[in-house]
Write a structure and sequence with these properties.
about 280 residues; 6-stranded parallel beta sheet; single chain; 4 helices; about 15% helix; 20 strands
Amino acid sequence: MATVVFQPGLEEIPNHAFRGALMLENVELPQGIKTIGERAFEGCKGLKEVVIPGSVKEIGHHAFAGCSSLTEVKLPDGLEKISFGTFFDCSSLKQIKLPDSIVQIGHQAFFDCYDLERVILPIGLRRIRPMAFYGTGFSSIKLPPTLRAISGGAFEACKLREIVIPPNVTYVGHEAFCNCEYLTKVIILSKEQFGWKDDPFLGCNLEQVVIPAHYDTAYFEEMELHPHKMGFAQWKIVGMPKMISDIFRTVLMVLQRYGLPTELILIILDYVDTNYLLLTK
């Protein structure tokens, strides 16, 4: 059973329909299917590629979990979320582009996808659930400006080297970036000082941290993000007078959306924005 071709008129792939079908390599899903059931293709270790038609509005939890040969998935516009464990342990998945209709990435959605090197997040994304990208292989990711919440362990044990937290984020959960051993640079652009949970950067090797100047640095001391516990020098104000800093901050947000490298963002913050504090070794 190398290939399965479905007849037109089918609207749903039932729960557990092909679970554990080890010989299945290709699936051709016709237009008209609206739902892919829970664990429908879980453990199909020979499955290499899936193209999901635009008619699909819902993909059940763990639908493609454990598809260890899956290298490419094409998702349709119209999906609003990636469910719990949808691509759990898809260890050969190399890259994925999430459609802009998605507003939430579910718990453990890409857990242990350690070959996942490139993820394009949707513009409308609002929440990343716990351990969504645990153990993934990408070294960078652009968080969209619409993002509001990063749940606990969302990027734990990833190969991230730098991260920019967008202005509208109001929540970062417990150990959200824990054990990202290559993570050295963090830029926090959030307008409001949000409630951190315990040690979001526990086990990281941070060398530079940038925060808005209006943040209470004592608050970071409580979170163990301060000079004495991380080996940093003292906080210092960087940049030019405030009357032009707002202009530069707006430009910075626009440039970030169009791919401005984090290294350049740091340079801009160093020289033009007094509204930020730089913590560096």
